């Protein structure tokens, strides 16, 4: 059930057809939330700016249903979840546009936090509290909705199977807003106010650097599941995502053979993971007989890449390693395509997943390559069943599943299996029982190695219309 948040009306000096057609193109930004979308087709992502506290807050919505020149229905995903209905009605020589915005019950708490409040948790000693620290705002905000969906799907499945040692799981969500400082505040809130028993995390490595000392000091088990720069497990912190060396060893020689180029350019955000990707790219490119012709790192939330594109063109590079995150990666690739460079320059995305491809768009993303541990188009029975359960739970227009988001589903199942093996959620016993634990999910079996890494498959894929084409399975990563 959803409660109405607000309604608004405005009259625009245009016919219904013209007013409807203007949505997503930047005209009359006051009533369209400054929306940007390539076309009004159900399932497509829409970049929007919602008014919160008198200030525009960047978010993501998705086209749910359209009735041309009459109605647009959006499901907004970030920074909260709800629905926007936009109706177009004749009004003299113009068109009256009426908006009704609603918010889902489950999003009241995160909206309250955005407005400076926090709702108390229900004290129940029998509940096992899982803290999910992810991003709903900022560059990495494109991942948040599907991350939470996959986490809730795992929690629901575990609870349907008698929970963990007879105790139900409860998910408590924190939003780092792609900000290390905010991430630390959110981790402290999850720990001190909501008393979480462990944290599963999808955020940048910059946030990980900020929260790691606190997590270590208070002894929280911390499962960090997305792509990362690597490193051995330390204490109760485990990094399970893909690492640059394993990705680039597959992508660099394959792209050089396929496209015939040897000149590379690296573009990334300016923090630890993209710089680790860049250092690894330099070594891998040179070992494969290529040349690194340029390298540039930009702050998170960069939206204008004109100077970078000029530098790429001047360098003569034919191949690009893109280690930008989420919305930044989408902005760069859209601008590269708009500048007419896609025919000259092919991109490898170190974090090119379904959510990022979705925001780049079919045309601009076509021909990009990726190496990740999961793609939604994997043709396995386990994956088809998983996607069926996901869509049954969240609808056919739900945000796509990707390696970033599926990793959370696996991580929570691995936590539950470990707690059952240990017979307790006590952190020291739990961590001691983790090596050897396995889970068979959408991409087959994954398992925790004796050193605490995750043994998992890797796939080389190319972006195509509507998703990815799997080019090859690249064997197992994370082996000790």
Automatic annotation (TrEMBL):
Q: Which Pfam families match?
A: Peripla_BP_6
Q: Which Gene3D superfamilies match?
A: 3.30.530.20, 3.40.50.2300
SUPFAM superfamilies the record matches? Bet v1-like, Periplasmic binding protein-like I
Occurrences of domain Leucine-binding protein (ranges): 128-466
User: What are the UniProt keywords, alphabetically?
Assistant: Signal
Indicate whether Signal appears among the record's keywords. Answer: yes
Q: Which family does it belong to?
A: Belongs to the leucine-binding protein family.
Name the chain's protein.
Branched-chain amino acid transport system substrate-binding protein
State the species of origin. Kutzneria kofuensis
């Amino acid at each position: 059930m959803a409660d109405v948040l607000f309604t608004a009306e405005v009259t625009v000096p245009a016919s219904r057809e013209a007013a409807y057609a203007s949505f997503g193109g930047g005209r009359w930004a006051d009533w369209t939330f400054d929306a940007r979308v390539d076309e009004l087709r159900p399932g497509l992502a829409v970049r929007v700016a919602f008014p919160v506290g008198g200030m525009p807050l960047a978010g993501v919505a998705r086209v749910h249903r359209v009735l041309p020149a009459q109605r647009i229905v959006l499901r907004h995903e970030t920074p909260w979840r709800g629905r926007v209905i936009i109706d177009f009605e004749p009004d003299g020589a113009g068109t009256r546009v009426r908006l009704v915005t609603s918010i889902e019950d489950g999003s009241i708490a995160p909206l309250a936090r955005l407005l400076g409040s926090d709702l108390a948790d229900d004290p129940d000693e029998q509940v096992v509290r899982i803290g999910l620290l992810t991003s709903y705002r900022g560059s990495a905000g494109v991942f948040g909705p599907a991350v939470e969906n996959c986490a809730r799907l795992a929690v629901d499945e575990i609870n349907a199977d008698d929970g963990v040692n007879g105790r139900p799981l409860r998910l408590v969500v924190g939003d780092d807003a792609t900000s290390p400082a905010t991430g630390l505040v959110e981790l402290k809130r999850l720990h001190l106010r909501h008393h979480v028993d462990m944290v599963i995390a999808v955020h940048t490595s910059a946030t990980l650097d900020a929260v790691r000392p606190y997590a270590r000091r208070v002894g929280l088990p911390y499962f960090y599941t997305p792509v990362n720069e690597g490193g051995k497990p330390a204490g109760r912190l485990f990094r399970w995502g893909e690492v640059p060396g394993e990705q680039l060893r597959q992508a660099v020689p394959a792209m050089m053979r396929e496209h015939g180029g040897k000149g590379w350019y690296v573009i990334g955000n300016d923090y630890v993971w993209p710089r680790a990707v860049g250092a690894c790219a330099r070594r891998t490119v040179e070992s494969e007989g290529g040349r690194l012709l340029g390298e540039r790192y930009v702050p998170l939330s960069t939206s204008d890449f004109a100077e970078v594109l000029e530098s790429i063109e001047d360098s003569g590079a034919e191949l690009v390693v893109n280690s930008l995150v989420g919305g930044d990666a989408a902005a760069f690739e859209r601008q590269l395509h708009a500048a007419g460079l896609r025919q000259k320059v092919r991109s490898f995305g170190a974090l090119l997943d379904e959510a990022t491809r979705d925001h780049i768009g079919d045309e601009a993303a076509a021909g990009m390559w990726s190496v990740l541990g999961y793609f939604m188009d994997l043709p396995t029975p386990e994956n088809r069943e998983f996607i069926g359960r996901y869509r049954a739970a969240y609808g056919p227009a739900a945000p796509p599943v990707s390696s970033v988001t599926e990793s959370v589903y696996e991580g929570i199942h691995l936590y539950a299996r470990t707690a059952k093996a240990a017979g307790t959620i006590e952190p020291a016993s739990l961590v001691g029982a983790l090596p050897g634990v396995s889970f068979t999910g959408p991409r087959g079996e994954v398992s925790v190695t004796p050193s605490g890494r995750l043994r998992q498959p890797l796939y080389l894929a190319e972006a195509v219309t509507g998703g990815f084409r799997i080019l090859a399975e690249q064997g197992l990563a994370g082996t000790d």
